[in-house]
Amino acid sequence: MEPVKLAIIYYSATGTVHALARAAADGAGKTGADVRLRKVAELAPPEAINARPEWAQHIQDTADVIEASPDDLAWADAVLFGTPTRFGNVAGQLKAFIDTTGPLWFQGKLADKVYSAFTASNTAHGGQESTILAMGNVFYHWGGVIVPPGYTDPVQFQTGNPYGTSHVTADGPPGDVVLEAARYQARRVVDTAAALKTGRAG
Ligand SMILES: Cc1cc2nc3c(=O)[nH]c(=O)nc-3n(C[C@H](O)[C@H](O)[C@H](O)COP(=O)(O)O)c2cc1C
């Protein structure tokens, strides 16, 4: 059986979600999965970006991360999406990427894959769950197999978010526990995709 192909597709303005995405890539990579870590295109105007030095800096720091294309979705057996909360919802940059996937969806090429999502917000009750659930709306339309972390690992009792890995940015950069949750979520996604792949091959 060839390795599971996992695409991790994220948007991050100031690095928090990028740190979670990298941890997820690390967790998945250790399972032997073939991993593509991809950022979506930045759409904000330069005036907005340059008004926040940490935003401009993050763009510079991640210049070498390849931009996501619909081909990454077609290629993948499983896709893990990361987005900051924006008013309790998915960031426009990630949504704009998702809105380019109509042709793939129409051909049925987004169905039957494993999907999962992670997020960050500034405050604890600032919309992490609603953001991940909003990604779920997309997965339903695609006919995806949604794999949340639930409380299926001890680390989930520490982070306390069964919907997907999430970090409160006001607490500082993601620490060991949330990074381990991201690694765990990615492993769970890969394991489920591997089981489906084996079952379908048989
Ligand atoms: C336009 C906008 C809307 C936001 N909405 C929320 C929100 O509803 N709740 C919240 O807790 N944080 C909100 N934030 C804060 C971001 O979610 C937080 O800075 C983000 O998780 C950082 O992720 P990043 O470092 O990967 O960009 C918002 C930020 C912006 C710029």
Features:
seven-stranded mixed sheet, globular, binds flavin mononucleotide, alpha/beta
What do you see in this structure?
It is built from nine helices and seven strands; from the N terminus they run E-H-E-H-H-H-E-E-H-H-E-H-E-H-E-H. A hairpin with a 2-residue loop joins strand 3 and strand 4 (89-90). The longest helix has 26 residues, at 176-201. Strands 1, 2, 3, 4, 5, 6 and 7 form a seven-stranded mixed beta sheet that branches. It has a single domain (5-201), classed as Flavodoxin domain (Rossmann fold, 3-Layer(aba) Sandwich). It has helices spanning 16-29, 46-50, 53-61, 70-75, 92-98, 102-106, 128-142, 154-159, 176-201, and strands at 5-10, 34-39, 78-86, 89-90, 114-121, 145-146, 166-168. With 202 residues, it is α/β, with parallel strands linked by helices. It is globular, with a radius of gyration of 16 Å. Residues 12-18, 84-88, 120-123, 126-127, 169 line the site of flavin mononucleotide.
Which second-level CATH architecture applies?
3-Layer(aba) Sandwich
The proportion of strand residues reads 15-25%
Average per-residue pLDDT, rounded, comes to 98
Uncertain runs: none
Question: Which class do the helix and strand fractions yield?
Answer: alpha/beta
Helix fraction, binned, reads 40-55%
The CATH topology comes to Rossmann fold
Q: List the ligand species.
A: flavin mononucleotide
Distance between the termini: 11 Å
Superfamily (CATH H level) name? Flavodoxin domain
Q: Give the helices and strands as they follow along the chain.
A: EHEHHHEEHHEHEHEH
| Overall tally of domains | 1
Supply the number of helical segments: 9
* CATH class category name: Alpha Beta
Envelope shape: globular
- The gyration radius over C-alpha positions equals 16 Å
What is the number of E strands? Answer: 7
Sheet with most strands:
7 strands, mixed
